[in-house]
C-alpha cells in the first residue's frame, strides 16, 4: 500500500522512560511515506527521561512544559489532547514510550482508513519479552453492538484518528474534563465515544508494532496466569464495573446510545448480561466469562 505524505501528529506520554524511549522515538521518526511530528508530555520523573529528550537533535519533536505530576498514563494523555494544537495535521496517533513500531505502521493505517472510509483505526500487536519470546495479541475480532462499553479497541498505542473528528473528541473532553479525569482508561473512553457517536472504527487484523512487555507496564498484554488472576481481581474488587459505569454515564449524559438499563443498573446486572452477554466483548469466551461473573455475583 502507498499513501501520500500525510502530516501526522503523534502524542506520546512518558514517565521514567529512560531505558527505551530513544529506541521508540527512532522507530516513529523512521516511519515511511508520512510526515511525522511527535509531541511529548513527560510526567514528573525520577530518571533521565527529560535529559534524554532535551538532548535530541530533531526538529520533529516537541516537548511540552515539564514539572507536573499526572499520576497515570490516562491523565498524561488527556494533557496532550488538551494542550497540543494539532489542527494543521491530517491524522493524530498515540504512542507509548517503550515499544517499537513497524516502519509502515502509520502509512498502512492511513491507507486503510481512507480505503474503507473509516474515522479511526487500531490494530493487533506483537507482544515481546526481553527473553526473546513473542506472541501476537489479537484484538480484531468482529465488533459487537456494545463492546465499546466493556473494552477498548486494543492498545491505545495503535490508535490513529482523522483530525476532523478527533477535534470533536477534544471539545467533548474540554466540556467534561472533571468527569473524564476520573476515567483511568483513556483508550477505552475514546473508543466508546467514537462508536457511540456513530463514527466508524477499523481494527486491523495485522500487527502494526512490537508491544514491549516488562515489569513497569501499566496494563500490558494481559497474557499468562498472573495476568488472568489480576483480571479476575479487577472484576471482583469492582474496579472494572466502576469504569464501565463512569464511561456509560458520561456517554448517556451526552444523549448518545448506551446499552438499555446499564446506567440504571449501576454498570449492568444479571438480567442485562443474560440478555446481552454476546454483545459485550468481541471475543466470545470473554463475553461468556463476564456474564458468568455477573451471575455468580462477583461483577
Automatic annotation (TrEMBL):
Keywords carried by this UniProt record: Transferase
GO molecular function: transferase activity
Entry-linked InterPro entries: Glyco_trans_2-like, Glycosyltransf_2, Nucleotide-diphossugar_trans
SUPFAM superfamilies on file: Nucleotide-diphospho-sugar transferases
Annotated Glycosyltransferase 2-like domain residues: 10-162
Protein name (record): Glycosyl transferase
Amino acid at each position: 500500500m502507498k499513501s501520500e505524505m500525510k502530516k501526522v501528529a503523534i502524542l506520546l506520554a512518558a514517565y521514567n522512560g529512560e531505558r527505551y524511549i530513544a529506541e521508540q522515538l527512532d522507530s516513529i521518526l523512521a516511519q515511511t511515506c508520512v510526515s511525522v511530528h511527535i509531541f511529548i508530555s513527560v510526567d514528573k520523573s525520577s530518571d533521565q527521561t527529560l535529559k534524554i529528550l532535551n538532548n535530541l537533535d530533531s526538529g520533529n519533536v516537541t516537548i511540552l512544559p515539564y514539572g507536573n505530576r499526572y499520576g497515570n498514563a490516562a491523565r498524561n494523555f488527556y494533557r496532550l489532547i488538551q494542550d497540543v494544537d494539532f489542527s494543521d495535521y491530517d491524522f493524530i496517533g498515540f504512542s507509548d514510550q517503550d515499544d517499537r513500531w513497524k516502519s509502515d505502521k502509520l502509512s498502512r493505517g492511513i491507507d486503510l482508513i481512507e480505503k474503507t472510509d473509516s474515522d479511526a483505526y487500531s490494530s493487533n500487536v506483537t507482544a515481546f519479552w526481553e527473553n526473546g519470546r513473542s506472541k501476537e495479541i489479537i484484538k480484531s475480532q468482529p465488533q459487537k453492538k456494545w463492546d465499546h462499553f466493556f473494552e477498548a479497541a486494543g492498545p491505545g498505542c495503535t490508535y490513529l484518528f482523522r483530525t476532523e473528528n478527533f477535534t470533536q473528541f477534544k471539545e467533548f473532553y474540554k466540556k467534561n474534563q472533571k468527569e473524564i479525569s476520573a476515567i483511568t482508561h483513556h483508550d477505552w473512553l475514546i473508543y466508546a465515544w467514537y462508536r457511540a457517536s456513530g463514527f466508524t472504527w477499523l481494527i486491523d487484523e495485522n500487527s502494526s508494532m512490537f508491544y514491549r512487555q516488562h515489569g513497569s507496564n501499566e496494563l500490558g498484554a494481559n497474557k499468562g496466569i498472573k495476568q488472568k488472576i489480576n483480571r479476575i481481581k479487577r472484576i471482583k474488587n469492582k474496579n472494572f464495573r466502576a469504569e464501565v459505569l463512569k464511561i456509560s454515564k458520561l456517554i448517556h449524559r451526552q444523549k448518545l446510545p448506551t446499552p438499555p438499563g446499564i446506567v440504571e443498573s449501576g454498570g449492568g446486572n444479571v438480567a442485562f448480561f443474560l440478555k446481552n452477554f454476546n454483545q459485550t466483548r468481541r471475543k466470545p469466551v470473554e463475553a461468556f466469562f463476564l456474564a458468568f461473573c455477573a451471575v455468580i455475583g462477583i461483577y
